[in-house]
Amino acid sequence: MTLIKKETAMNENEVRKNAFAMPITNPAYPKGPYRFFNREYFVITYRTDPYKLRAAVPEPLMVDMDNPLVKYEFMRMPDSTGFGDYTESGQVIPVTFKGQAGSYSHNMFLNDDAPIAGGRELWGFPKEYAEPSLRVEKDTLVGTLDRGSVRIATASMGYKHKQEDAAHTLDAMKAPNYLLKIIPHVDGTPRICELVEYHLEDIDLKWVYSGPAGLQLFSHALANVADLPVVEIVSASHFKADLTLGLGKVVHDYLK
């Protein structure tokens, strides 16, 4: 006679113990830490319209209206624990919070489900699905971002024209980063609305290069990168590092 094991219900203690991410029986991403190896950055810093920049950044973060800068980034992540192999692109805005200089993530587009879910749920990264790429074409570093069949951004830089001192880039990578985390309630009202701070940790910066650069941003109804127009390109850099993406902390609660 074959005995059939009778399954028991998942009790409340088991729910609390396993409630890390959704779905509870098959989480979309694993627990950290999240370590990235050979993470490649292509960053173009440009000047934009100061009033449009101010409107894009939530208080109590502050922007420099006299020097309204945006960093357009492409990041190639070929090897990351838990998240795998993917590419990302978006805009990061230099800000200050209580006098401390840092960066605010305005929008991010990537091509991997796990870091989209984990980035939104854990930290509050403004991640959406799209198709970014970062590659070398002969003597040019090229970054592109497409949403479906529509081109959103094209960036180019002379490949490794000038090697730079890594100290300035390392200091910028160590600065705090800020995110606006929004989680809705079941009735559609905000359940969580917080300003989150996080840091990159255990950074091993391998090299930094600069070069001449170009950047085009294209209008799209559902991807608003062109809402912060390119007025003037200030600088461009290309660098590679190993790093750990640290977990965050809440520094401002908009609902209290």
Structure characterization notes:
The structure is a single chain. With 256 residues, the protein is mainly beta. It has one domain: Beta Barrel (Acetoacetate decarboxylase-like), CATH 2.40.400. Helix content is 13%, strand content 52%. It has helices at residues 12-18, 50-56, 113-123, 166-174, and strands at 34-47, 69-80, 84-97, 100-110, 127-129, 131-137, 140-147, 150-158, 162-163, 177-184, 190-198, 200-210, 213-217, 232-245, 249-253. The mean pLDDT is 96.
Briefly say what this structure is.
The protein is mainly beta and 256 residues long. It has four helices and 15 strands. It has one domain: Acetoacetate decarboxylase-like (Beta Barrel).
> How many domain modules?
1
CATH topology (level 3) name: Acetoacetate decarboxylase-like
- Mean pLDDT, to the nearest integer, reads 96
* Beta-strand percent range: over 45%
| CATH C-level category | Mainly Beta
